Task: inverse folding
């Protein structure tokens, strides 16, 4: 009889502790324990394990990539090395590329974390979940605040990695069976993007580049050895390696194969920069989503598509849109942010966005308003008599405005909308100046003909561009005989003075959002 009060007290304590997990998930324990955490691994995935020499109880390792919006599950094989089991598309992540630094910044963390059985939550209100372990020792050393950052279902994120419910069920089952097989904890590696030389060259001037370089050291070790790197926190820096790192050595010997990979990547980065690869930053309204979850447009039939079946093409993909398109996404967080998509902004050596003045007049602007205004503009043709004096007056202004100038504007770190505001205001102001200048273009009045009677010109000037000619005053001397000089003045075709072209920000838009 004494056991019942103890069991009841334990249930209340457990319910209170789970309910306190506030950020990305909470508990449904008070409504009864969920059975979905016991869902078996799908038969198709079990068959895939067998073809790769894996079993359900083998240890796992998970890697997440924010920019590509992908999550990989690796399993250890009979050889002792890890092999990729499956790649899953991330349904939603929030914030920007870069580490989480404080509570409420909506950032999905980046770094190396450890997941134990106690961090698995079978009663999450977001279907199923596990806590990634933020903040770790490195995050705390940098003053990072916040907690309860999850990988969960329901496709809604406020700093977490959100998967579909079906995907989360499969990942949870794989992790559960690994724990049942004896694994005490698995490693969760979170990256801003895949640590390729191309990405390192592209994001070399981002303020987070030194931190990302540190993460690449751990990625290089895993890529070379296909084994979980030992991780140590030495101040605010990660140290990766083998047994010496596990023993607490903050200056471990770098493995020969790892050192060779780093040298190859360094040379490739230098070559890409020498070829003109621009330094950029990717700006999101609020995180991203794998494009597999967006409405798919039917691809146009080409000659190549006539010789390959769609089924054969899908074999080359890590995941098929036809499969994940049927998943229930639930309530997606901030869909308006996803609709805007990411924007790549060219930056200088300090990570500040670059604007180029005197861009071509037909270059696309960064705002929809500018594009719409340009589409409705009509070319203006003015018929008037040339006046060299006024043309010379307008020439210096146009020459000065045509000189290109590089303008660095304030950094927008922590405020993704600042880029849009800064670029939008600059372009909006210049467009208004251009419209005002074009509206003030007027033709000079035509001089009176020498004959006493006005002569009608051969081509009628436009009313807005040319003023009517005044009759010549009566001459006191006898009029000279009419000659060729009395013919009407030949109208000259003139156009509006050139106005300074509007500045153009070196901004490109990316089509897809992979983590």
Result:
């Amino acid at each position: 009889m004494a056991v019942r009060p103890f069991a009841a007290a334990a249930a209340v304590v457990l319910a209170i502790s789970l309910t306190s997990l506030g950020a990305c998930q909470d508990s449904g324990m008070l409504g009864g324990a969920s059975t979905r955490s016991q869902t078996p691994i799908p038969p198709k995935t079990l068959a895939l394990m067998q073809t790769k020499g894996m079993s359900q109880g083998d240890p796992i390792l998970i890697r997440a990539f924010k920019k590509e919006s992908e999550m990989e599950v690796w399993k250890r094989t009979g050889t002792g090395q890890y092999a990729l089991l499956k790649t899953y598309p991330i349904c939603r992540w929030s914030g920007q590329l870069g580490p989480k630094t404080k509570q409420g910044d909506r950032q999905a963390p980046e770094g190396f974390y450890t997941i134990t059985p106690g961090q698995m939550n079978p009663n999450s209100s977001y279907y199923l979940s596990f806590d990634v372990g933020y903040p770790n020792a490195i995050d705390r050393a940098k003053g990072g605040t916040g907690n309860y950052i999850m990988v969960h279902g329901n496709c809604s994120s406020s700093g977490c990695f959100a998967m579909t419910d079906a995907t989360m069920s499969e990942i949870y089952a794989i992790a559960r069976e690994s724990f049942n097989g004896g694994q005490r904890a698995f490693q969760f590696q979170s990256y801003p993007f895949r640590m390729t030389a191309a990405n390192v060259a592209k994001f070399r001037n981002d303020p987070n580049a030194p931190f990302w370089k540190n993460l690449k050291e751990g990625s290089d070790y895993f890529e070379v050895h296909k084994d979980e790197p030992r991780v140590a926190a030495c101040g605010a820096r990660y140290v990766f390696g083998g047994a010496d790192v596990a023993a607490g050595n903050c200056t471990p010997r770098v493995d020969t194969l790892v050192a060779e990979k780093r040298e190859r990547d360094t040379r490739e980065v230098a070559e890409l920069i020498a070829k003109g690869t621009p330094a950029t930053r990717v700006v999101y309204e609020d995180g991203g989503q794998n494009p597999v979850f967006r409405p798919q447009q039917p691809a146009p039939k080409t000659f190549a598509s006539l010789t390959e079946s769609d089924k054969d093409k899908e074999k080359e993909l890590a995941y098929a849109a036809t499969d994940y398109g049927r998943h229930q996404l639930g309530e997606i967080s901030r869909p308006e942010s996803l609709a805007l998509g990411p924007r790549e902004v060219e930056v200088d050596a300090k990570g500040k966005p670059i604007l180029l003045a005197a861009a071509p007049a037909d270059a696309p602007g960064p705002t929809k308003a500018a594009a719409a205004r340009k589409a409705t503009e009509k070319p203006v043709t003015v018929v008037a008599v040339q006046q060299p004096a006024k043309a010379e007056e307008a020439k210096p202004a146009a020459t000065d405005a045509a000189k290109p100038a590089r303008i660095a504007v304030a950094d927008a770190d922590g405020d993704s909308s600042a880029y849009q505001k800064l670029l939008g205001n600059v372009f909006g102001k210049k467009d208004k100046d251009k419209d005002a200048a074009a509206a003030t273009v007027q033709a000079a009045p035509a001089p009176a003909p020498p004959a006493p009677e006005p002569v009608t010109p051969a081509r009628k000037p436009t009313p807005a561009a040319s003023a009517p000619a005044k009759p010549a005053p009566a001459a006191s001397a006898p009029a000279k005989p009419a000659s060729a000089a009395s013919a009407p003045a030949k109208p000259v075709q003139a156009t509006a003075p050139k106005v300074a072209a509007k500045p153009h920000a070196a901004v490109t838009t990316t089509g897809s959002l992979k983590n």
Notes: The chain has 14 helices and 20 strands. Residues 417-439 form the longest helix (23 residues). The CA atoms of residues 6 and 12 lie 10 Å apart.
